């Protein structure tokens, strides 16, 4: 990676073009500049007119946003996805020219993306636009961090490009993002809500419980699907806006692939890395919120002391500890969970902090962690096999890591739950729950109902 400093756009472009030696050669150039405040949702909305795939990420926990438009480069992997992605990413970084005077996480060359929950489960038509693993380096990107705004352009230059002309075009693009764009935000109604095989799903919970009682597994997470039909095409900007307003303490994301868009508001961080500081979370065990403060406190209290929920949770804590211990030092995990409140429900939550050892990347950690027993089960292989053989849906990217990383080894991935695949005027929503030896199929069904609420309520349901 070559870094350039203190120059004008035209000079930067000119120097980069001159490095291209052959007629068919390409040079990836990344330029970041600080800009005036620009609403990330406005940026996302304006990009709609550019007819390019858009990518949205925010951690409402730290008021951090990345919005990407288009693909300067895409890294797609069907097999050996962690290795392939990491190799292509580091090769790309080696060859890129980067102009980024700010050492701010999420600026400069950043890649955003996600992957399928289980690449061994045959892909159905529903998820046909999403590969086993797909990461994009956007053409244009807005980053909001610590109250400042950064605009990044990633461009693939050819030898016969003209610096002056390109500089003009890029300045126009930047101005476009600041231009007005009227929005039509209201009126989405869910006309039809089709639960996919609810009674068969309860049977599969019973069957999983049997496996567990026969000691073939300890925990198996089973998900189900709800199909929605709307009165009109869902407007993704509005969906995101409503998720941001209603789902604090969450990671809100959207990944567009042509006319399909995978959207969610998940509370579950898989891993965050800033410099060598690692954060992960164990999130499992669920109860609804109370209608009054008193009732809410009573529910929290019983969730905290409930043996079945504590068991669901402890499997996750033990596994995460085991999975990352060889990759870090200073691993710290409290002995007891705390309550993590969300708008519609509350969870048991245990934070994990550690120092990442030199030589390891966020990919190494994701590879170890995914799927945790919060989405797969315990033991991993047995529970995954059960899901593969018995679950009644194609999870696609639901329940899998989604997030971003930059060229300075910073990055963050969440587990894509509380999510759905929006396809024009229809959508599929997904929710699952951890089945353990004392699970009651009816109660688990109700638990998935509340997990569907965050998405349902922003889709006019
Ligand atoms: C599987 C989901 O959530 C997971 C399952 C939980 C549980 O069963 O208690 C809680 C949080 C997540 O780990 C989902 O929301 O779809
Ligand atoms: Mg549960």
General description of the model:
The active site is at residues 219, 268. Belongs to the isochorismate synthase family. With 461 residues, the chain is an alpha+beta fold. The chain folds into 2 domains: 2-178, no CATH class; 192-458, Anthranilate synthase (4-Layer Sandwich), CATH 3.60.120. It has 11 helices and 24 strands. Strands 1, 2, 3, 4, 6, 9, 10, 11, 12, 13, 14, 20, 23 and 24 form a 14-stranded mixed beta sheet that branches. Strands 5, 7, 8, 15, 16, 17, 18, 19, 21 and 22 form a 10-stranded antiparallel beta sheet that branches. The radius of gyration is 22 Å and the shape is globular. Bound molecules: ligand ISJ and magnesium ion. Magnesium ion (MG) is lined by residues 285-286, 312, 433-434, 447.
Task: Indicate how many domains the architecture comprises.
Answer: 2
Largest sheet: 14 strands, mixed
Number of helical segments with 4 or more residues:
11
CATH domain topology of the largest domain: Anthranilate synthase
Q: N-to-C terminal Cα separation, in Å?
A: 48 Å
Task: Specify the helix fraction band.
Answer: 25-40%
Mean pLDDT: 96
Shape: globular
CATH class of the largest domain: Alpha Beta
| Rg (C-alpha, Å) | 22 Å
Helix/strand-derived class? alpha+beta
Spans where pLDDT lies below 50 across 5 or more residues: none
Strand content: 25-35%
The CATH level-2 architecture of the largest domain is identified as 4-Layer Sandwich
Ligands, ions, cofactors: the ligand C=C(O[C@@H]1C=C(C(=O)O)C=C[C@H]1O)C(=O)O, magnesium ion
User: Mind telling me the CATH superfamily name of the largest domain?
Assistant: Anthranilate synthase
Q: Got a strand count? A: 24
Family: Belongs to the isochorismate synthase family.
Keywords: Isomerase, Magnesium, Menaquinone biosynthesis, Metal-binding
Pathway: Quinol/quinone metabolism; 1,4-dihydroxy-2-naphthoate biosynthesis; 1,4-dihydroxy-2-naphthoate from chorismate: step 1/7; Quinol/quinone metabolism; menaquinone biosynthesis
Cofactor: Mg(2+)
């Amino acid at each position: 990676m070559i870094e350039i400093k203190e120059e004008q756009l035209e000079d930067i472009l000119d120097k980069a073009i001159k490095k291209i030696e052959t007629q068919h050669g390409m040079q990836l150039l990344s330029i970041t500049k600080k800009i005036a405040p620009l609403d990330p949702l406005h940026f996302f909305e304006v990009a709609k007119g550019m007819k390019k795939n858009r990518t949205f990420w925010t951690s409402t926990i730290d008021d951090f946003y990345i919005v990407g438009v288009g693909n300067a480069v895409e890294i797609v992997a069907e097999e050996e996805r962690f290795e392939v992605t990491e190799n292509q990413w580091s090769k790309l970084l080696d060859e890129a020219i980067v102009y980024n005077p700010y050492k701010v996480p999420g600026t400069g060359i950043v890649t955003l993306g996600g992957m399928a929950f289980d690449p061994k489960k045959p892909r159905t038509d529903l998820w046909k636009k999403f590969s086993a693993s797909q990461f994009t380096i956007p053409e244009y990107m807005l980053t909001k961090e610590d109250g400042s705004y950064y605009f990044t352009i990633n461009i693939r230059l050819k030898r016969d490009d003209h610096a002056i002309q390109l500089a003009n075009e890029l300045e126009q693009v930047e101005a476009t993002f600041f231009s007005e764009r009227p929005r039509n935000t209201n009126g989405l109604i869910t006309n039809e809500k089709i639960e996919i095989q609810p009674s068969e799903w309860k049977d599969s919970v019973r069957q999983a419980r049997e496996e567990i009682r026969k000691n073939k597994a300890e925990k198996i997470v089973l998900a189900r699907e709800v199909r929605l039909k709307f009165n009109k095409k869902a407007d993704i900007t509005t969906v995101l806006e409503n998720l941001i307003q209603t789902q604090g303490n969450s990671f809100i994301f959207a990944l567009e692939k042509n006319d399909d868009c995978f959207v969610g508001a998940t509370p579950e961080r898989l891993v965050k890395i800033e410099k060598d500081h690692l954060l992960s979370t164990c999130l499992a065990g669920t109860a609804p919120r109370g209608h009054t403060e008193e009732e809410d406190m009573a529910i929290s209290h019983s969730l905290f002391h409930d043996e079945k929920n504590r068991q669901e949770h402890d499997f996750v804590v033990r596994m995460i500890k085991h999975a990352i211990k060889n990759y870090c030092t200073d691993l710290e995990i409290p002995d007891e969970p705390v309550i993590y409140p969300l708008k519609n429900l509350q969870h048991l939550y245990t934070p994990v902090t550690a120092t990442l050892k030199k030589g390891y990347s966020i990919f190494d950690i994701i590879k170890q962690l995914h799927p945790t027993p919060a989405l797969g089960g315990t033991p991993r292989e047995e529970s995954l096999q059960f899901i593969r053989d018995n679950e009644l849906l194609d999870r696609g990217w639901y329940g899998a890591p989604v997030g971003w990383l930059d060229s300075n080894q910073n990055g963050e991935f969440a587990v894509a739950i509380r999510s759905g695949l929006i396809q024009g005027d229809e959508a599929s929503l997904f929710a699952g729950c951890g089945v353990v030896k004392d699970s009651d199929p009816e109660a688990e069904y109700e638990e998935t109902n509340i997990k569907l609420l965050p998405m349902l309520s922003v889709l006019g349901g």
